[in-house]
Amino acid sequence: MPTELAREDLHAAVSDPASASMNFLNEVSARFPDAVSLAAGRPYDGFHSTEDLDRYLRTYLDHLRRIGLDEEQRQRQLLQYGRTNGYLGPLIARMLSLDEGIEVPEQAVMVTTGAQEAMVVALRGLCARPGDVVLAVEPCYVGFTGAARLLGIEVVPVPEAPDGLDPEAVLAVARAVRADGRRPRALYLVPNFANPSGVSMPVPARRRLLEVAAEADLLVLEDDPYGLFGLDDEPRPALKALDTEQRVVYLGSFAKSCFPGARIGFLVADQAVIDARGRRTLLAEELSTVKSLLTVNTSPVAQALVGGFLVESGGSLRAAVREKVRFYRGNMRTLLAALERSFADEPRVRWNAPDGGFFAVVEVPLTADESLLETSGRDYGVLWTPMSFFHSGDGGRRAIRLSCSALEPAEIEEGVRRLARLVGDRAEPPDQLRRPDPAVAGVTG
Questions:
Q1: Is the pTM of this model over 0.90?
Q2: Where are the alpha helices (DSSP H) in 216-299?
Q3: Which tens digits make up the pLDDT trace of 154-164?
Q4: Is the four-CA dihedral 218, 271, 221, 248 of positive or negative sign?
């Protein structure tokens, strides 16, 4: 007789609705392949070609030869198990110095299998006791909350304000957690063009947040996949660039700047770790044990592809992505203009106006749940993401996230037109609507 397992006997991460949201979106996209997807936050396909792979590999191999590796050493680096924390530390440290003004030793860099692994490694390494929790901005990227659930680590939400995370709210939540007998270990946030809200923190708030982190004895997990893609060239310093006390663990990714198929991310953890005998190491070095048990090491071939990309660009991501920046800027402006045209006569539809990135949030006069998304894909040919996916409670029920990164401008405009038809047909009467959903930060329209 075939073995049958009770679903309730599996880990909660298997059936948790929030953790399963990404799978749900993939399934919906597969069922409605002709729909315009304003849900996908992936990079634009036109920037990637399989023809680039051979060039990046050869560029990296030439780089290894120039720094003194012989043929046997070069082959071993690409074709064998490799160093747990990876080979790209020198190139990434140089990139951070050139692009962000972040000065860290190469030993503080761990190369990971995507930024998702960096989150898991950081969470597992930092949360050691039963009462250890992490704080996270809400609405929050589901990859982070899902990783915490997988590890059995509690996430305590800190509500996002219209202009980004309020440092005083972080301090209040951290104090409440301590008063309850638990230990807040770290705060997770995306300070630049956040996923899902698109909101960015003002520079004064960034400086105050670092003060709060010191006062509350918190580390800050800064996730920065979108910082290169502002609508203007206004400087937006990374928290890590402002960090003078090693409070910030910086999480990075090459998915948006190079290409996602390489699955290369990294973390920068330059915090000192002191053992009982007084021996000092860096946090990134200590966390290598965690990583070794997850993936042994990050694919050296994938690292070589990204390494070639970095070498080709002179070590600067900002130099490498200028064409992509122009494209994504145009797409965000197209999305905001399309919303203005399509909903000019519907005052109950409001949206924020991000200063860059891939995402905007729209408040709608109806319940934007999985059932409506099915209807939207099937009957209206447009997909989006329910904002409820990014909330731990009941927030975001009347709001949606729109992504503009993966489409041509004409597709964005058509998608918004289809969304307008959905809202026009399905909107609830005004007397049935509740007060505006607090999930929408900085709404306009």
A1: yes
A2: 239-242, 283-286, 288-295
A3: 999 999 998 89
A4: positive
